[in-house]
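ugh ok fine here u go
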Amino acid sequence: MSRPPLNPEKTAAGIAVDPQTLERVIPESRRPDGTVRKQIKIRPGFTPQEDVRRFRGTKQQQMDSNVLPKGHVVGWAPPPSSTPASTSGKALSKSAKKNAKRKEKRDEKKTEPVKESWEDDDEADTPAPKADADGRAAESKPSTSSDITAATDTSPDALASGLEKLKVK
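structure:
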């Protein structure tokens, strides 16, 4: 027979098994003023009121073990995945079509990127350059100072000249 652990589990009433004597006891504890309460032995077979479980009959225990998950409907089975969706096969009513359009618009608004700063508005509104017959993008004259640096090469000389133009005197 193995010995119980050094820090035994306590019941709701605080009863634990003493690891040395294997008796049920309420271990000693310290009061707020610093004094120590003595260890109290519990008679064999005694169960305090805090540890008494609520009585459940055999039928009640069986019902608890067979309980269905929350929200489950008895007799309902999910439709098989091989059948098409019910809305695609039927013609939509006038109001259903309106609701579908509204839902699509809401989804489109959700997918639009959120702009982090107001300065990015100018860059986002400029149209993309059109491609030539060769497939290369045609260069257009930049309209603002922030577009000057974006449209030019990223070489150090081009960046330096762009910064000189932006200097405030």
